[in-house]
Amino acid sequence: MVHIPIPDLLRLLVLPVFAWAAWRDVQTRRVSNATWYPLAALAVVLLLTESWVAWSGPPFSREWMGLQVAVSEWYFFYIAVSLGFVAPLVLAFWWFRAFGGADAKAFLVIAALLPTYPFYHFGGTVFPVQGTVLGVFSLTILTNAVLLAALYPLALFVRNLIAGRFDSVMFVGRVVPWNEIPDSHGRLLETPDGTSRNGADLDAIRMYLRWRGVSLAALRKRASELRDPTTLPAEPNPPTDGAVGAKSIGSKTVTDGGKVVEKSRESNDSSYEDPWGAARFLAEIDHGAYGTTPTQLREGLEVLVAEDEVWVSPGIPFIVPMFAGLLVAFGYGDLLSGLLGALGIVAI
């Protein structure tokens, strides 16, 4: 026998939406704000409806894990924790750049849509099977996502270890050939002085190349010439937002050709006041370049014209572990509580 309350059935709509958003995040690192509007509207409707039932209706309970769970008595507590603790926590993660903007918006929707544990009866089993002390479903999804996201640095480390690439950034980066940079996401983990966590954003690099109307291949071939800011185009192209696959408008493209320069760090000519025109680029674009400074941009360009392979932090498209955390939460429940229970620390 299958029994699913209508509100909980509607909450399952979060899965296909997050599946699409996760795919989109992997492909482009861009998720439209409009993605979250239907789920946000659904969250408001369910919050108002269930709050009215919990406030005005008789107390009701659901059988879960052999217990009668009093839903109405705790409903406002779950909402208070989800909206008053989980949502501000997510905003704090965004403020300190642990989350991207799309990640924060996605989880704010989860905090509003999934404050309480849903219940799905299939035969004699009720899902999720693993509960948690507080019973706040959005908190379960957050902890699941964080635990699953922690596997990514471990995978990078193992991959670099097997390849024999030993470096201080082997937990957070991978080595990418220079010609894959135009189609790669993330941040450079190198400067002319060596590996660094403070390298240039690859979206900002793409913005600069499109603004200048030059390919990375041409930049490498003509580095000695194009380092001179007087070679900047009089009418630059639109920089776009740096997304992979976006095309700049116009035909003022610097063609490949010219003298091939020796690929060495010593090729940097620092006699220019604004090498590469980095400061002019950042001053003239009508929107930001993901916090990139002229120094970061110059150093990133110097690395890319000198090296055949570079360390790149691909970053974690957090909507991916968020979607995985949702799947696990709906099916299994709370990973952290299950782990602590298996260790004999907490029994839920």
UniProtKB/TrEMBL annotation:
PANTHER family with a match to the protein in the record: PREFLAGELLIN PEPTIDASE (PTHR36506)
Domain Preflagellin peptidase C-terminal: 295-335
Region ranges (Disordered): 227-272
Subcellular location: Cell membrane
Entry keyword annotation includes Membrane: yes
Transmembrane domains' residue ranges: 6-23, 35-55, 75-95, 107-127, 133-158
Biased composition (Basic and acidic residues): 259-268
GO annotation, cellular component aspect: plasma membrane
The organism of origin for this protein: Haladaptatus pallidirubidus
InterPro entries recorded: Preflagellin_Peptidase, Preflagellin_peptidase_C, Prepilin_IV_endopep_pep
Pfam families referenced in this protein's UniProt entry, alphabetically: Arc_PepC_II (PF06847), Peptidase_A24 (PF01478)
Main location: membrane
Entry GO MF terms: aspartic-type endopeptidase activity
Lineage: Archaea, Methanobacteriati, Methanobacteriota, Stenosarchaea group, Halobacteria
Protein name as catalogued: A24 family peptidase
Keyword NAD: no
Membrane topology: Multi-pass membrane protein
Domain Prepilin type IV endopeptidase peptidase intervals: 13-153
Entry keyword set: Cell membrane, Membrane, Transmembrane, Transmembrane helix
